[in-house]
Amino acid sequence: MNEYRGKHSSSELPWAVASQASRNYRSRHGVRNRKRRRRRIVIAVLVLILLIAPFVQARILTVDRVSLVGEDLPADIGHLRVVYLSDVHYGFFYSDRQMASLVSTINGLRPDLVLFGGDIGATPEDAIRFYQKLPSVHARYAMLGVLGDSDRGGDNLQRDKVTEAMRAAGVIPLVNALSPVRVGTSMIYVGGLDDQTTGAPDLRALAGSASVSDYVIFMSHNPSVIPDAQRAGDASGRLSWFDLALFGHTHGGQILNLGPLMGIAEDVDDRYRGGWLTENRSSLLISNGVGTSVIPARLFRPAQIHCIDIAAP
Fold first, then answer.
1. Do 13 and 112 reside in the same domain of the chain?
2. CA gap 130, 108 in Å, rounded
3. Which of 14, 18, 158, 307 has a CA that sits 20 to 30 A from residue 123's CA?
4. 313, pLDDT greater than 70
């Protein structure tokens, strides 16, 4: 009996070993399959986030806060708060609800000046509707704006209709013009250039009406004018006629700086693609803008307005 059991046990041993090996293999294979499934899920989630995130980010407005020293700002002014916005592209991709939220954000900043940097509408008709529907903006001293290629169009009749809508909304349109703004007992000046691509910009006339000794804010929708603006002279032929210059047009590249490939601001040098710069004695801002063009998406180029606090030295 003992001998039979010994032989039986011996004959079953290879099968038991094989069965255990099979179980070990299935266990290891199952672990590998679970790891592959987890990796696939993680990759799928990341791809989904990358697909959705640009459309979400485009609807999140940020406020860029910057403090500057204005060497020419009159001492009795002491402090000036400027809120600047551009490239709203109001229309199909930008709703009245978003406009109301935008204005609420602007008013919450308690601005002294509100400056509009162009391309407020996706088309001239949209720009007119924007200004017609614009809720009350609480600027202490003034609102001024320039025209961009989208809201100006190439037709002077359309330009005039847009500027008329701006005036009706309390916004002073600047088309190759320098406007004085009284702040207390002193003056500052805001100059605006006609659009570079669809208008008739006259930089020499605009610069020639300014003075280096005054505090001048210069606006142009398109930053490609910067080199020419720096070479232009004031009323006495002196350079550095503006203290602060504000631009839009590029959307900061909109999606990973792919804007030029999408047909956005192809004419702008890479140096002036977005952000703050200091050149000569002037501070330069190229804004990412508020809205979008081509597709309603942004990635790592957030929608933004700017709250600029300027202090006298």
1. no
2. 20
3. 307
4. yes
- Look-up of token digits 């081509």: 294
Residues 199 and 263 in one domain: yes
SS3 at position 44: helix
User: Do 133 and 3 share a domain, yes or no?
Assistant: no
- Say if residue 27 is in the same domain as residue 161: no
Q: Specify the 3-state DSSP secondary structure of 253.
A: helix
- Structural domain boundaries enclosing 292: 62-311
Q: Are residues 37 and 75 in the same domain?
A: no
Where is 208: in which H helix or E strand? Answer: helix 203-208
Query: Letter for the amino acid at 297?
Result: A
How many CB atoms are located within 10 Å of the residue 177 CB?
A: 18
Q: Which of 57, 83, 98 is the last residue of a domain?
A: 57
**Are residue 228 and residue 304 in the same domain, yes or no?**
yes
Between CA 296 and CA 231 the distance in angstroms is 37
Strand partners, 305: 63
Residue type, 168: A
Whether residues 176 and 199 fall in one domain: yes
- How far apart (Å, rounded) are the C-alpha atoms in residues 309 and 233? 27
- Beta-bridged to residue 255, according to DSSP, are 299
Pairing of β 282-286 and β 244-247: parallel
The per-residue pLDDT for range 154-176, each reduced to its tens digit, is 888 899 999 999 999 999 999 99
- pTM of the model as a whole: 0.86
What phi-psi label fits residue 20: left (phi over 0), alpha (psi between -120 and 50 degrees) or beta?
alpha
Q: What is the mean pLDDT of residues 132-143?
A: 97
Q: What is the arithmetic mean of pLDDT over 240-259?
A: 94
